[in-house]
Amino acid sequence: MTRLYFPLFVFVLSLLGITAMAQTPIDSLLPVRGFCIAAPQPKQLDTFIKFINEELAPRQVNTLILRVDFNYQFDSHPELRDSLALSKREVKRLVKACQKNNIRLIPQINLLGHQSWASKTTNLLRVYPEFDETPHVKMPEKYVWPNADGLYCKSYCPLHPGVHAVVFELMDEICDVFQADAFHAGMDEVFYIGDDKCPRCSGRDKADLFAGEVNSIRNHLAQKNRKLWIWGDRLIDGKTTGIGMWEGSFNNTYRAIDLIAKDVMICDWHYERPDQTAVYFATKGLSVITCPWRKPGFAVTQTQDMVKFRKSVTPVMKDRFQGMMQTVWSGAGPFLDEYYGVSVNPESGENTATNCFKSMFGEIKKLSESN
């Protein structure tokens, strides 16, 4: 494994305020060694920074995605803040820890889909209900799936004339405070799009709507030389592949794969099988990262596959297979409690995010040492 550093170059760029990308080491085995988790709450900050310094850095993690959403004290839209949210000073501590450890820090705000969860509408649609793609679908007192409305998570309407003014200001502010050269927009599990009752979207092609939103976000970020990252599930044909409606699309958004900009980074998640759809994204001209969650055996297989893909393709294709990223779908607090043995669920057995994280990076280390 080769890791190249340019300390003088990095120093000069840091004086210009360009830090995140410049400090990320180049890894010839896996360019991206990532970790994705919800941003910590203020009370968890010290423990999380300890985790960055003592667990991520020694494993040579070079990319950290923090799902921030509204866990930040936004100045542009204070009405959207969570009640307990990170301050600018607290975010700077995270930025400093990542810079010290050569970790590229990328913030995420869920866009388009995931504007509700269970029986709760999240901040954007709660404050701006006019952005709702399906206002006729009422949030239930007790959520169950499946349900008559097909409600999983609410979406905002991508064609509402006011939505991007708000969303883009949030993106700009969060990227500025995190000193980020990339932004993760989520965009996974979008079940509500192009609804028949939406006065703007009704009758429109769902693939065109999805691609239009991806490209609008991408183009806005590009104005400040920032890159867009998204989850890849809506770009997979869930019916034809048999992958299903969660890790693939049943509402025809998958055709957007041929309509989106080729510099969008795809985070390809598969949690129940180690499906090799990274090859599909790469052959479509998109860069891709494979993302496990809680099954250690699958994470090892997926890591081996990613290294094998990079070794067995043309140089042009090799650059599209970008690496691996462990994902965590609890809050930072529960994960840290599990990791440090504060609170462990014995019923989980081996299938935990902690064990998956250790197994994936253990396999990366083994493969690095053998290459």
Automatic annotation (TrEMBL):
| Gene3D superfamilies for the chain | Glycosidases
Highest taxon of source: Bacteria
Ordered alphabetically, the record's keywords are: Hydrolase
Q: Sorted alphabetically, which SUPFAM superfamilies does this protein's record hold?
A: (Trans)glycosidases
Does Cytoplasm appear among the keywords?
Answer: no
Domain named Glycoside hydrolase family 20 catalytic: residues: 85-305
Positions of transmembrane segments: none
| One Pfam entry name | Glyco_hydro_20
- What is stated as this protein's family in its record? Belongs to the glycosyl hydrolase 20 family.
PANTHER family for this protein: BCDNA.GH04120 (PTHR21040:SF8)
Its name, as the record gives it, is Family 20 glycosylhydrolase
